[in-house]
Amino acid sequence: MTLKEKVLIELEKGAMSDRELTDRLLGVNAPQQSINQICRHLAEKGIIARTSPPIKNILKTQGYIPLETKKLNDSLMSEESIKNLLNIYLQENGWQTVVAWGGTHGIDIDAHRNSERWIIEVKGCGSRNAMRVNYFLGILGELLQRMDDPNARYSIALPDLQQYKNLWSRLPDLAKQRTGIDIIFVAEDGKINFAK
Q1: Which pLDDT does position 69 carry in this prediction?
Q2: Chain segment 119-155, per-residue pLDDT in tens
Q3: Is 147:164 a contact under the CB 8 Å cutoff?
Q4: Least confident window among 1-15, 101-115, 152-166
């Protein structure tokens, strides 16, 4: 049995970090580079998902990160969790993605599939109503500053919260049409909903 097969068997028992997998499979305090490489490869192939730090490896079952992930993160409504869910969705639909993880500067998600390009900016839920308004206005500004490819699709991604839906509905249709921006709402159960 290969080490990769052993990793998959361990992940059937539940989510684990690279360190936990290394301790179980190679021994306590063994170097974890080989496990890290295997997990990254499995994630690239779409077999497992890797959560935002602290990184946990999760065996994927039905195309989205299972609800148990909520126990691993503060919230599935955080910016990093939404990036993670969208990244999985895009890769499963044939897109190659570059994701700005952990506050890295640049486009949050830059996806390519054949000649298509999809640029997505992401924000989390925020803790107060006023913060959400600022997030909404900020994400529009960030996306507008990235509009340098006339052939790309441009989207903003936000938690599926009523306040964000209200803010989107109040944005004039003319502004949406002229910019071509659309929105992706990500629900706490991991469902991804597209809106114009």
Answers
A1: 39
A2: 999 998 877 888 889 999 999 999 999 999 999 999 9
A3: no
A4: 1-15
Residues 52, 136: one domain? no
Read off the CATH number of the domain in which 25 is found. Answer: 1.10.10.10
Give the DSSP letter string of 99-160. E--TT-SS-SEEEEETTEEEEEEE----SSHHHHHHHHHHHHHHHHHT---TTSEEEEEEE-
Contact 113, 95 (CB under 8 A): yes
> Phi/psi at 193 (nearest 5 deg)?
-120, 130
DSSP letter (8 states) at residue 177: H
User: Is residue 68 scored above 70 in pLDDT?
Assistant: no
Which conformational region is residue 184 in: left (phi greater than 0), alpha (psi within -120 to 50 degrees), or beta?
Answer: beta
Cβ distance 187 to 82 under 8 Å? no
> Per the structure, how many domains does the chain have?
2
Max CA distance (Å), the chain: 61
Collapse the DSSP code of 14 into the 3-class scheme (helix H, G, I; strand E, B; otherwise coil) and give the result. Answer: coil
Domain residues for the domain of 96 are 74-195
Stated pTM of the model: 0.63
Place of tokens 């190679």: 26
Determine contact, residues 152/118, Cβ cutoff 8 Å: yes
Amino acid at 186: V
